[in-house]
């Protein structure tokens, strides 16, 4: 389709159809937002509706601007404003991402916001089938495939944060590595420094157990570590 044909198509867009496209975008936001809100995520139904509606309005306005300025000899790009929506919505998605301890939450919600913005652009461009089918696909991804992912995730693991004070740092480190190998664990984020008490060190580390029975491995690991005479104080946090 050349520029002249595109202009003819865009001229056929009425305000009634523009409203219809906005309603379609709001429906897309409802479909995705209800699932997020039901799971008490940072961005719920209203947020997703607003993102989809805003993206749709941006695309509709782009269409009207193209039709309005094309006869004046200008060459407006109806996709330029839409491109800014796709990149700009990333700031909103970043606001839903939170770090709690070792885990990062909100990535799926951020992705759903980005997807809703894209579907809103599709609705604003008049691609109703794509917008509605995409909304159904996103909803299925957030619900059906969540169950599938849980069943496929056969590799279980347990994560433990260690915070201890000890003497003979090299000996304790040797035992930590030995116990980790014996109990199917990997150590990471190992940090240590000397305390105010001479010869006593403060050590922190993360142990991830990935064996067939991570909880049992973790219990044995702590029993062995707690039995080390050089360990003066041991605190743990389960993740």
UniProtKB/TrEMBL annotation:
Residues 22-150 form the MgtC/SapB/SrpB/YhiD N-terminal domain. Its main location: membrane. It is found in: Cell membrane. It is a multi-pass membrane protein. Keywords: Cell membrane, Membrane, Transmembrane, Transmembrane helix. It comes from the Bacteria. InterPro entries: MgtC/SapB/SrpB/YhiD_fam, MgtC_SapB_SrpB_YhiD_N. The chain crosses the membrane at residues 18-35, 47-67, 128-148. The keyword Cytoplasm does not apply. Pfam families: MgtC. GO terms for cellular component: plasma membrane. PANTHER family: MAGNESIUM TRANSPORTER YHID-RELATED (PTHR33778:SF1), PROTEIN MGTC (PTHR33778). Belongs to the MgtC/SapB family. This is MgtC/SapB/SrpB/YhiD N-terminal domain-containing protein.
């Amino acid at each position: 389709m050349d520029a002249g044909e595109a202009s003819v198509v865009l001229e056929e867009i009425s305000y009634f159809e523009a409203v219809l496209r906005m309603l379609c975008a709001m429906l897309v936001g409802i479909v995705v937002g209800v699932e997020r809100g039901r799971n008490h995520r940072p961005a719920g139904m209203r947020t997703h509706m607003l993102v989809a509606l805003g993206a749709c309005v941006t695309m509709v306005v782009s269409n009207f601007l193209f039709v309005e300025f094309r006869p004046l000899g200008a060459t407006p790009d109806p996709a330029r404003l839409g491109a800014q929506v796709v990149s700009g919505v990333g700031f909103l998605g970043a606001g839903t991402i939170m770090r709690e301890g070792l885990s990062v939450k909100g990535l799926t919600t951020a992705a759903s916001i980005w997807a809703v913005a894209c579907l809103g652009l599709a609705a604003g461009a008049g691609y109703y089938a794509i917008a509605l089918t995409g909304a159904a696909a996103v909803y299925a991804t957030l619900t059906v495939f969540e169950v599938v992912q849980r069943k496929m995730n056969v590799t279980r693991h347990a994560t433990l944060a260690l915070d201890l004070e000890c003497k003979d740092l090299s000996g304790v480190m040797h035992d930590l590595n030995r116990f980790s190998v014996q109990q199917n664990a990997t150590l990471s984020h190992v940090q240590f420094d000397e305390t105010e008490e001479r010869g006593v060190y403060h050590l922190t580390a993360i142990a991830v157990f990935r064996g067939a029975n991570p909880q049992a491995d973790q219990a044995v690991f702590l029993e062995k570590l707690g039995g080390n005479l050089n360990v003066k104080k041991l605190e743990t946090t389960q993740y």
